[in-house]
Every structure is written in structure tokens, then in C-alpha cells.
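Job type: complex structure
Entries:
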Amino acid sequence: MADLSIAVRQVGDVAVVLPAGFINAHTVRDFEECLEGLVQEGRYTILLNCKDLHYISSAGLGAIMGLIETVREHGGDILLSNLQANVFAIFDTLGFTQLYRVFDEEEQALAAATPERKG
Amino acid sequence: MDHAQFRLVIPSQTRYLNLVTGLAKRASLVAGLDDAAAAKVSIAVDEAVTNVILHAYGGEGEHSVELELRFTEAALEIHIWHSGKGIRGDQVVLPDPKEYIKHPRKGGLGLLLMSRFMDEVQFKADEVSGRNECCLIKKIS
């Protein structure tokens, strides 16, 4: 099994990214290229559905941090959903749950993203 | 429990990170830590070994990283040795998470995760062998 695979689907104006596996210094370039590709295509509202993400290191956090200002400058955002307990612990320990909106389920995140896009 | 220790030597390549973090997680469970604590040890080891590969060795893949796991009654100790560029404990400056959130940027979070997820993080240099060490300690509560 590959360390990381990434699926992307579009739901309305939201790009839903589903990373599966492990994001670390070895796999982060694939993750980064995926996010950068979305931004280059003008898809500025990105939902990371982390239901199959087992692990993310600071390399992966850096990839997300590196784009947050860009997407927000364009009226978008990066949202998170379905975090496994250990992945949530990483975000929460660093205080990142204050920077990103975190939802239990993808549907909740999509609903929250919708009024924002219209506002 | 008898004190035990064993060593693993890997090439300085990020492709082996998953192997090392998996070992760290399993070792944590064997030591008596719960799943949540084991996951944190695993992350800390990832960060420490990544620092060695990318910063101490500058991304050069032909070097070695040596890990030693020590099981004691009080703690799990993970010692990571390398021959690359070392850092001393007094050179470590942890970023302030609040400032980091105000001014997002890449990098700087690995040491913070290590310090938050482990009970002790020590950096040492062995002047005789010329090797450097990062020691991660997780107490068994």
C-alpha cells in the first residue's frame, strides 16, 4: 500500500480533498502539489476530509499553513472534517483549531462553507 | 519488567519514516502506554528523525540514523544518533503557537510537537565519537 493517496471531488464550489494514509516528510510533496493545484485552478474553498488520514506531521501542517492566507485573500477557506483522534490532537495541541474550522462530518463542513461563499 | 533495549539503524531517507514511526508506536504500546500516548510518541519520533534527515544531513540519503529504544519501569526512552550537524539544547527556540497562528508560515512546528508530546526532549553531543543525539523520553504513568 502506498503511504499516501489523495482523491479530490467537487461539491458545488467546494473542493473536497480526501487524503488516505500518512502525510510526513516523504509524502508531503504530493499533498502540497494537490493543494497548490487547486489554488492555481481558482478553487479557493477546500475541505480536507480526513477520515482516512492516519497521521500528519509538521511537514503536512506546513503545507496547509502555507496556503491559508492565499485562499482567504481570495474569499475562500480551508476547512477540516472527520479527523481521527490522533490527528485532531496534533491540530488542537498547537492551537490550530482556532485557525481552522473543524467539523465532525463532511456534510456539516459543506453546509458551513455555503453561506460563507455567498456572503 | 526487565529493562530492555534494542537498536535499529536506517539510511537517512524519508522513505523509512513510516517504518520508524510504526515501530515507535508499537514499542509505546509494549511499554504500557495507551493508544493516544503511543500516537504522540510516534509523531515525536517522526519529527526527530525528519530533522536529522533534512537538517542534520541536509537531505543527503547515504548516511545513517541510529535509534535505540530503552524500556524501563518508569519510561520509554528513544535515543536517536547521527553524525550530521547537531544542535544544542540551548539553541532550541520553540515558536509561540499564538504568534504562529497570527502569522502562518511553513516550518518551525516539529520541535514544538516534540516538546508537547514527550515528557523530555534532550539534545546532546558526544565529543569523543563526534556524534549527536536527540533523546525523547515518555514516562509511563
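Summary: Chain B touches chain A at residues 14-15, 17-18, 21, 35-36, 39-40, 42-43, 46-47, 50, 53-54, 97-98, 100-101, 104-110, 112-113, 116-117 (CB under 8 Å). The mean pLDDT of chain B is 90.
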